[in-house]
């Protein structure tokens, strides 16, 4: 009602599925609305859109990560599994957990939605902590416990507190969903919170901006838009979220003192290759870097000559669009 009174041009409703959409849709009338995360509207009427996580993909990503971790660190042995979700989610959202468990069950027969322990919580960290503590106490001799927290990273942090309070931090691994700043910090800390499927909440605004501008401009805009997903763990978290010190060092670089070397696989007759080179050169020159660009011309000998030219030019980094046509070793 406040949005209608303010006469907003578009309403971004980060509801997450906690309420009945229909009353809100009726209240907003013909004002365009984007639901952020949570379930889809029952019907995508004109002016209704959805932006958010892909439960199926996120669940599969989580399951594959758990399988790899268990194989690499526990010899394929799982003592028990604890999952967190919202039971009132539609099937699409439930796939965050159901797909994860399905993949785990395929790798380690015996595990299914019927054999794991499930906690039903929304944003209630204390409720999840109490449920997790009861689960941990019910498995006193277990040291290969898997915790899958699919609602958000609040649940993952609650499990950390439960493990810590019982002095069992080494007895479990947490695979979470969201990838928020608290999850990033926990992953970097190296405790039981090992992974979170990144939804990149810190970039929602930038992702929504072109969608909103398209809607307001009257363009044909798709009804459903997804966030990118990638699992964040100790192997890659610093790539996506560098430490402040690293970011400060990068910010201190003077691009005008740096030369970027770029080699193209083939300029003549390859529109794809030309498009790549033009965008690379334009992007780096716009950022203030000098770019030294050459052409491999689909020739292995030329590739090696280009590597020597890069060394002679003393480039600071070499972007080698080689495409696999040659033996890398000589260039390396």
What is the strand arrangement across the widest sheet? 5-4-6-7-8-10
Give the topology string: H per helix, E per strand.
HEHEEHEHEHEHEHEHEEHHEHEHEH
The overall pLDDT average reads 93
Largest sheet: 6 strands, mixed
Overall morphology: globular
Cα distance, first to last residue? 63 Å
Oligomer: single chain
Q: What class would the helix/strand composition place it in?
A: alpha/beta
Rg over C-alpha atoms, rounded to the nearest angstrom:
25 Å
Low-confidence stretches: none
Question: Approximately how much helix is present in the residues?
Answer: 40-55%
Number of strands: 13
What percentage of the residues does DSSP assign to strands (E)?
Answer: 15-25%
**Number of helices, counting only DSSP H or I runs of 4 residues or more:** 13
Write structural notes for this entry.
This protein is of the alpha/beta class and 332 residues long. The chain is built from 13 helices and 13 strands. A 6-stranded mixed sheet has the order 5-4-6-7-8-10, with helices on both faces. Strand 11 (259-264), helix 11 (271-286) and strand 12 form a beta-alpha-beta unit. Helix 5 (125-137) crosses helix 6. The N and C termini lie far apart (63 Å). The model has no long low-confidence stretch (mean pLDDT 93).
């Amino acid at each position: 009602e406040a949005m209608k009174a303010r006469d907003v041009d578009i309403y971004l409703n980060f509801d997450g599925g906690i309420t009945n959409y229909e009353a809100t849709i009726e209240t907003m009338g013909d004002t365009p609305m984007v639901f952020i995360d949570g379930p889809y509207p029952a019907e995508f009427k004109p002016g209704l859109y959805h932006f958010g996580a892909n439960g199926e993909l996120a669940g599969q990503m989580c399951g594959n990560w758990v399988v790899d971790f268990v194989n690499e660190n526990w010899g394929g042995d799982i003592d028990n599994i604890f999952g967190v979700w919202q039971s009132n989610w539609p099937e699409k959202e439930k796939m965050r957990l159901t797909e994860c468990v399905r993949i785990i069950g395929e790798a380690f027969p015996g595990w299914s939605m019927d054999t794991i322990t499930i906690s039903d919580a929304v944003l209630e960290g204390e409720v999840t902590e109490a449920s997790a503590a009861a689960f941990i106490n019910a498995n006193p001799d277990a040291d290969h416990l898997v915790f899958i927290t699919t609602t958000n990273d609040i649940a993952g942090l609650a499990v950390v507190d439960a493990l810590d309070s019982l002095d069992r931090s080494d007895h479990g691994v947490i695979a979470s969903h969201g990838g928020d700043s608290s999850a990033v910090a926990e992953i970097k800390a190296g405790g039981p919170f090992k992974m979170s499927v990144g939804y990149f909440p810190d970039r929602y605004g930038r992702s929504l901006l072109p969608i909103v501008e398209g809607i307001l401009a009257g363009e044909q805009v798709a009804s459903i838009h997804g966030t990118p997903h990638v699992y964040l763990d100790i192997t890659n978290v610093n790539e996506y979220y560098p430490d402040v010190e690293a970011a400060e060092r990068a910010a201190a670089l003077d691009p005008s003192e740096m030369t970027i070397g770029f080699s193209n696989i083939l300029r003549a007759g390859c529109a794809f290759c030309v498009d790549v080179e033009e965008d690379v050169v334009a992007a780096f020159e716009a950022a203030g870097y000098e770019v030294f660009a050459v052409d491999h011309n689909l020739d292995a000998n030329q590739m090696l000559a280009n590597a020597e030219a890069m060394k002679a030019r003393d480039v600071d980094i070499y972007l080698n669009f080689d495409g696999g046509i040659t033996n890398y070793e000589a260039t390396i």
